[in-house]
Amino acid sequence: MPPLSFVEADDAGEDLDGAIPIAADLVQPLTSISGSLFGDADLFQIFISGDQPFSATTLSAETLLDLPIDNTLGIPTGLLEDPQLFLFDATGTAVFGNDDLFGTIQATLPSMANPLSPGIYFLAISGFGYNPVSAGGDIFAEASFDGILRPTGPGGELPLVGFAGESLSSGNYTIALTGAQTIPPTSPPIEPLRELFDLTGFDSNVTVNVIQQLFREAAFNNVLAFYETDALGRVGGLLPGEAGYEAAAAANLLDGIGLTANNNQTTDVTLDLLGGTYYAPALLIDGNINNLATVGDAALGQARIKREGNTLLFEDLTDFDFNDLIVTLTPEVSAIA
User: Fold this and answer.
1) Tens digit of pLDDT for each residue in 124-133?
2) Which domain of life is it from (predicted)?
3) Is pLDDT above 60 for 191?
4) Cα(first)–Cα(last) distance of the chain, in Å?
5) Which residues pair with 295 in a beta bridge?
């Protein structure tokens, strides 16, 4: 993709909620950000790729040459004369900043010896005197010997909440960037398969006590078992419908769980499962582990498990009435230590 030079259209905010995210449908290298300040600050959300060192600077031929000439001649300039740059991580915690570097009043965030981890960051620009603050006060103290501002102020360990102070600097700016890109598009949330039993709301070290009611109206002595999956029903690296899925489900059935009911009778069963994951049901038709009804059948065009609310209905492929085992999960799932 061609590189992107981003131009501020709507005024960027100066807190995390007001930051402008620089995103695109396809990831593009981000080579510059341009905008204007009027005594305030602008905050942008960017993605640091990690494949090359990150840097940001307002130094350019225009800022180095035009500003002194304009000032000497007394001609008003549209350029921001004394900018500051600051970088914050995805939580708003400061990384580093700069006011003046390389003998100029322009700002530069140079490439650091330790590369930044890939991810989302916030890049801020303000005029001299208008500084980042957290709930604890000023985030940055005085610059160190190398000209870098580090978050050693009284509020340095807390996330950015805004800016404070006064800046007399107004004008246009362009920040040249390396090692930055547009924010990758977010994938839509995964919708779990309806037939799965979702215990992701519980910690993985908690046992969940589930009361089940089983009913059977079938000649076969069908047995209900479970196996652990992800939200898509994946087991053994295979998705439902892929070759070998039923064998992978059979190989990963939970030990000691085989629930059944006598024909035309209802049975209450207590089942203990660990939280923090999904469980898929498997019906062992007539108790045969080599003949399973799983969520993989629907992917092959012949569903053998249906879910209606908290009830799972199974078909053993005899008459398609989906009453060969009916399992009702309790709507009140309680966690026990």
Assistant:
1) 999 999 999 9
2) Bacteria
3) yes
4) 53
5) none
